[in-house]
Backbone:
């Protein structure tokens, strides 16, 4: 890793330390508007030179891990993350950029899914409109139970979603944000109970759900336009 054509590397973490560095903040508490989920620092660890976020049930609820990098907040740049995640009917994930000021939207999810076999995932751009808010969505097929490098290139008026260094979709125009944002990586409850309620389905076929779902991150690197 290092500088790339058009990009200047400003941050890298390969998680070789015994504990997570203070460049990361660890989630703790209930996600806003999501009473079925809970984040806890106990679900975040570094081992075998990887950041590991785990999700598994405890005391009748699903508890997961999440982290954010507040040390690098910038307007425009490139973010790359090498990761994999176990399949799960109960745990979804997101790798995203969040507005430094905390106001939502905007949000750039450069990879997110709702649980399942991890054979597809989506990129989203959430943005404000005159009438409230809206989103752009793009979807890509790949096996995310295997190691993949996912990323985003964000420039004025354009967002490019990347997979293993290749652009797989773009978003352009007024939906593209123009304010400082930082990186976050998280797991969150996405149980079949929630999906069944949303689609009026009966029953929860979760026999194949593993008890623990791990999202593993090999490294993260961040670039500024160069």
Residues:
């Amino acid at each position: 890793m290092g500088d790339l054509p058009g990009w200047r590397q400003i941050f890298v973490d390969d998680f070789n330390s015994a504990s997570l560095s203070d460049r990361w903040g660890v989630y703790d508490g209930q996600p806003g508007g999501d009473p079925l989920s809970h984040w806890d620092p106990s679900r975040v660890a570094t081992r075998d030179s990887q950041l590991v976020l785990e999700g598994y049930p405890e005391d009748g609820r699903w508890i997961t891990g999440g982290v954010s990098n507040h040390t690098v907040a910038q307007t425009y740049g490139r973010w790359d993350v090498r990761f994999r995640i176990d399949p799960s009917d109960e745990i979804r994930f997101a790798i995203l950029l969040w507005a430094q000021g905390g106001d939502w939207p905007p949000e750039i999810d450069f990879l997110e899914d709702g649980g399942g076999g991890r054979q597809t995932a989506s990129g989203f751009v959430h943005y404000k409109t005159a009438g409230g808010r809206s989103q752009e969505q793009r979807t890509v097929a790949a096996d995310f139970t295997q190691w993949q490098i996912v990323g985003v290139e964000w420039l004025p008026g354009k967002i490019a979603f990347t997979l293993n260094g290749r652009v797989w979709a773009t978003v352009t125009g007024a939906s593209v944000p123009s304010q400082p944002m930082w990186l976050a990586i998280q797991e969150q409850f996405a149980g079949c109970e929630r999906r069944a309620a949303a689609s009026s389905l009966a029953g929860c076929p979760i026999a194949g759900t593993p008890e623990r779902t791990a999202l593993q991150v090999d490294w993260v690197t961040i670039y500024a336009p160069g």
Summary: DSSP finds one helix and 17 strands in the chain. The helical segments are 192-199. Residues 88 and 199 are 19 Å apart (CA to CA).
